[in-house]
Amino acid sequence: MDPTESDRIIPATTNHTRYQSIGPTGPEEQASPVQHKVGAVALVAMAVLLFSGVVVCGLTATDDRPFFNNGTHAFAPTVIFISLDGTVNQDLEFHITPVLSAMADNGVRAEYMTPSFPPITFPNHWSLVTGLYPEAHGIVGNYFYDANLNDSFYYKSPDKSWDSKWWGGEPIWITAVQQNKKSGVIMWPGCSTEINGVRPSYSVAFHDHVTADDKVDQVFDWIDLPLEDRPQFIGMYVPEVDQSGHANGPYANEASHFSLHLADQSIGRLLDGLKQRNLTDIVNVIVVSDHGMSATDSSRLIYYDDVLTQQELDLIWTIEAFPMLGIRPRLDVDQDKAVETLYQAFRRLYDSLETPHFKVYKKQDFPDRFHFRDNVRIPPLLVLPDPGWNLITHKDYRGGSPYQPRGVHGYDNLSPESRAIFVAQGPNFPKGKTATPFWNVELYNVMSRILNLKPASNNSTLNGILDISE
Ligand SMILES: [Zn+2]
């Protein structure tokens, strides 16, 4: 982490032409897609429904050419993986993200990427780096109770949330280290946790008030390390777009757009710095979000205490996975009976409304397509509102001022407002192409392919090859 100046790659600020790439520089130079078996175990094949088309041109594997050279230094295959938390796929159409648009022209943009359910931050950041659905990796919400552990996870409490007992699956930065490659991770949820007794080679724990530009500087510090110390996987987490979306609402709102524009500019700084180092065609940059966001409104509220009796309300111990009501009954009552009582109560609420705008399920009846059933951490009763709707009590909101938060996510992951972004460029991506929509659990295998890693078991179905159209 502290190389001498001579070991650093000094950006060419005056004479770019002295750099001559002698490694593979573009997809046209690479072999056609290599259909090697990566040994991944697809635990659940539901996503096939979304990818019924033939897998055509995809990523090119690099295992026959493991090294690049920017003219002065050798580079192993490298991925910089950036999450702009809460960026709505549709927001890339508002002409406030010129850098991401240019990236799409120079690489691949997905029509959209489907987040895993529930489309909230911790579950999806862990799905992005493990290739597992939340029910499989166990981070089923930002906060949840585990009856087997008799303990609760709370994302804002590092003392608790960093304990490895919560985190199932194997994030790509651990896969890399276990296969003798370096990884560096900046503030990504879970990056401060030891997994399988291993940590990323370098990591920066989450802190508020660190700008995206500061994080880009950290990325350059790592990229400028000597080959033997340089991470091949770099993860970087940017929370500002999500924070602004919650406060101001997601769409057509200047404040939210401003934070997205700033994030876009920071990615521009990153791309400029890579260009100065003659690394544009050597380093892959992938920009994603974990989920989209829906606008709330005081006209889209359902007061469930209008129908549930106080006796019924008193049965509720915790409500998890907001804006869904993931309801857990008090521990001192008969669980099955309490779940049945509360289920019937929400059925009564449903029947009382002309257009209910929510659905209630017992956990075992939650539809297969959510992949959100098979884990003790999932609450036994799930009340899912329609996008943009909120189930609340009169104590939660009394009216008079605009309902807060103005933007909320965590609804049906197939709703258009939940869709996440995917934009990527670099030697493993064709230029100016569009990827067919895919689920975010595919990216672990995609990155494993680029980095020549043998992936751990995961839920992907595409074997690391995205369906990319002309
Ligand atoms: Zn998020």
Automatic annotation (TrEMBL):
Stored Pfam families: Phosphodiest
Keyword Membrane in record: yes
Transmembrane segments: 38-61
Keywords: Membrane, Transmembrane, Transmembrane helix
Source organism of this protein record: Parasitella parasitica
Gene3D superfamilies noted in UniProt: 3.30.1360.180, Alkaline Phosphatase, subunit A
Gene Ontology MF terms: nucleoside triphosphate diphosphatase activity; ribonucleoside triphosphate phosphatase activity
UniProt keyword annotation of ATP-binding present: no
Protein name as catalogued: Phosphodiest-domain-containing protein
GO biological process, one term: nucleoside triphosphate metabolic process
Regions of compositional bias (Polar residues) in chain numbering: 12-23
Location of region: Disordered: 1-31
